[in-house]
């Protein structure tokens, strides 16, 4: 007689039954029933070096056995110091000072506070505002959710959030200014100066932007001249530029950091996800050395978390970094990205695919009710979620996102691990086509 499984006491993130993962290897996963899945989205665009890398687990185990935890105000660790030195080689501009935390939301929260601390250190206490963008996502803490441009995620918590100024996002497919590139003359970039002037430059501390917009805009790539123009605006007004690389960093776009595509040197870079490739919860700020020096000279950074600067997390990140370097996975992401772009291009012929956009191994497929008019499906249809469920039935994991077109908008994120093979890319696109067909799309 079979015995029924006891009811789950886990407060799951979704209200439907989930398969239970048993193991993973490279770009593949298996559940406890023995079923194979291709990880076409790296979870939530997290896994870079692939599943099942024993050397990362071994590095974490060695550090845990030696010293699993010390508080960041009491000890440092050799592994943390070594990781900071090794990562600095790849950091954009002068952003070489590492503040290690345990998630992307914590990283962005830390960056916002550090920007404020820098202005205080320079004798400008009036600078406290952070300018976000109209379509964006920077985390789920109250501060980072406040600066984000995700109305559906913000709505339940609106009374808890602070009012945040926002500039127009460089999202050409659904331009918030109702213009078209290049005839727009990059009005979205100029909008940042307009917002800063309206708020009063003496009150603005920072501008935070994803160099390649993540799930909120389905991997939208800004025009090439966008970031240089907003960087110049930030310099002109004495505003710190924060590059949110939580999703697009660590090789995902074919460069170590997506901001490198523009040639811009930010003041602060926030990291997460691919930093540990999912082997440990992680986030970080990479700060320009001059920012840290000024804050330290003024008495230090009044901020911290219990698990910041964690040695085992640092061990995981260092092992991931060594694999990224040794196997040249950042360069591989650029090569695979070009191949994936060609394979995904065939989806444009489908009747309800409005756009296919991205770079490297981070792509978004936007589904529209009427692609010629860029008209989204009504949100009530849950189109992205339904296709995701059909894909999972076919053995493919993709990452759905919604709200890129106001309250509506359906996007499927395709962002496989950097170790994915050509054959697996082909299979992923084939399974995705099958899932779209199953929903009549």
Description:
The termini are far apart. The protein is globular. It has 13 helices and 16 strands. The strands form three sheets. A seven-stranded mixed beta sheet has the order 4-10-9-8-7-5-6. Strands 11, 12, 13, 15 and 16 form a five-stranded antiparallel beta sheet that branches. It has a four-stranded mixed beta sheet with strand order 1-2-3-14. The mean pLDDT is 97. 51% of the residues are buried. With 441 residues, it is of the alpha/beta class. Strand 1 (21-25) and strand 2 form a beta hairpin.
Q: Can you count the helices?
A: 13
Q: Which structural class matches the secondary elements?
A: alpha/beta
Distance between the termini: 44 Å
Number of DSSP strand runs: 16
User: Outline, from the CA principal axes?
Assistant: globular
Widest sheet, order of strands: 4-10-9-8-7-5-6
Largest sheet: 7 strands, mixed
Strand residue percentage: 15-25%
Q: What is this entry, summarized?
A:
This protein has 441 residues and is α/β, with parallel strands linked by helices. The protein has helices spanning 42-45, 54-67, 78-88, 104-121, 142-147, 151-154, 187-199, 226-237, 289-297, 311-326, 329-344, 383-394, 422-438; strands spanning 21-25, 28-31, 36-39, 95-101, 129-133, 166-167, 204-209, 240-244, 268-272, 283-288, 353-359, 362-370, 375-376, 396-397, 399-405, 408-414. A hairpin with a 4-residue loop joins strand 12 and strand 13 (375-376).
SSE layout and pairings?
Blueprint lengths: L20 E5 L2 E4 L4 E4 L2 H4 L8 H14 L10 H11 L6 E7 L2 H18 L7 E5 L8 H6 L3 H4 L11 E2 L19 H13 L4 E6 L16 H12 L2 E5 L23 E5 L10 E6 H9 L13 H16 L2 H16 L8 E7 L2 E9 L4 E2 L6 H12 L1 E2 L1 E7 L2 E7 L7 H17 L3
Parallel strand pairs: 3-14, 5-6, 5-7, 7-8, 8-9
Antiparallel strand pairs: 1-2, 2-3, 4-10, 9-10, 11-12, 12-13, 12-16, 15-16
Helix pairs in contact: 2-10, 3-10, 4-9, 7-8, 11-13, 12-13
């Amino acid at each position: 007689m079979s015995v029924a499984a006891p009811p789950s006491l886990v407060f799951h993130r979704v209200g439907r039954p989930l398969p239970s993962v048993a193991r993973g290897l490279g770009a593949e996963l298996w559940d406890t029933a023995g079923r194979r899945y291709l990880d076409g989205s790296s979870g939530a665009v997290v896994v870079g070096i692939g599943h099942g890398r024993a050397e990362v687990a071994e590095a974490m185990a060695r550090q845990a056995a030696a010293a699993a935890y010390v508080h960041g105000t009491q000890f440092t660790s050799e592994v943390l110091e070594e990781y900071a030195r090794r990562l600095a080689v790849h950091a954009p501009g002068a952003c070489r000072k590492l503040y290690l935390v345990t998630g992307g939301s914590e990283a962005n929260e830390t960056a916002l506070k550090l920007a404020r601390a820098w202005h205080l250190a320079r004798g400008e206490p009036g600078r406290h505002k952070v300018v976000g963008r109209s379509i964006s996502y920077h985390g789920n803490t109250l501060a980072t959710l406040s600066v984000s441009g995700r109305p559906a995620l913000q709505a339940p918590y609106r009374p808890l959030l602070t009012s945040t100024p926002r500039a127009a996002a460089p999202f050409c497919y659904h331009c918030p200014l109702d213009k078209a590139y290049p005839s727009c003359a990059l009005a979205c970039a100029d909008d940042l100066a307009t917002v800063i002037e309206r708020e009063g430059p003496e009150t603005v501390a920072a501008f935070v932007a994803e160099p390649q917009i993540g799930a909120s805009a389905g991997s939208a790539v800004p025009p090439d001249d966008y970031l240089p123009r907003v960087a110049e605006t930030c310099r002109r007004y004495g505003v710190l530029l924060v590059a949110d690389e939580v999703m697009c960093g660590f090789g995902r776009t074919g460069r170590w950091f997506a901001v490198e595509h523009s040639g811009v040197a930010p003041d602060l870079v926030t990291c997460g996800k691919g930093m540990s490739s999912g082997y440990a919860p992680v986030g970080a700020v990479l700060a320009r050395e001059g920012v840290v020096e000024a804050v330290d000279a003024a008495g230090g950074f009044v901020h911290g978390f219990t698990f910041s600067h964690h040695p085992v997390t640092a061990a995981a990140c260092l092992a991931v970094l060594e694999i990224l370097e040794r196997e040249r996975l950042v360069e591989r992401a650029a090569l695979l990205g070009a191949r994936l772009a060609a394979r995904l291009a065939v989806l444009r012929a489908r009747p309800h695919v409005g756009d296919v956009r991205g770079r490297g191994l981070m792509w978004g497929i936007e589904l529209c009710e009427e692609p010629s008019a860029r008209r989204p499906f009504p949100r009530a249809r849950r189109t992205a979620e339904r296709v995701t469920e059909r894909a999972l039935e076919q053995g493919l994991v993709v990452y759905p996102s919604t709200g890129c077109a106001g309250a509506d908008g359906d996007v499927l994120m395709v962002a496989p691990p950097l170790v994915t093979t050509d054959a697996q890319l082909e299979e992923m696109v084939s399974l995705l086509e099958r899932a779209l067909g199953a929903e009549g799309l």
